[in-house]
């Protein structure tokens, strides 16, 4: 249960009729108002209700400033949490941790996921392993020749 405090009022969202989608929207509004802590709480609650909502995970990732903040989040026990951790580690430039999670996801059956392939290539790019990053981007291009996501990073590597 999450309690939000804003100036002189408080609101217990545990007793609300808001579904995951409305909570996500509320979290985005709080984020735009620079109410970071409240936004984090609301987005976490939205994810407990709908753990497959990748947009909510991305909004939450943008609010994470360091590893300590990430470790204190109360996230749902769901496989999406691993994907979120890897994405957030990559955003925080914690490339070894991100690569470890992405590799474990590939080993678990996501070997041909174009998203994960691209994230692994970006991780290698961040680690200045240009040859490995280009190799993975070439594999990605063979799998999906019409993919435009991350093309800017690939072109910079070339």
From TrEMBL:
Pfam families: ANAPC8. One of its GO terms (biological process) is positive regulation of mitotic metaphase/anaphase transition. Keywords: Repeat, TPR repeat. Signal peptide: none annotated. InterPro entries: APC8, TPR-like_helical_dom_sf. Gene3D superfamilies: Tetratricopeptide repeat domain. Residues 14-121 form the Cdc23 domain. The keyword Cell cycle does not apply. GO terms for cellular component: anaphase-promoting complex. PANTHER family: CELL DIVISION CYCLE 16,23,27 (PTHR12558), CELL DIVISION CYCLE PROTEIN 23 HOMOLOG (PTHR12558:SF10). This is Cdc23 domain-containing protein.
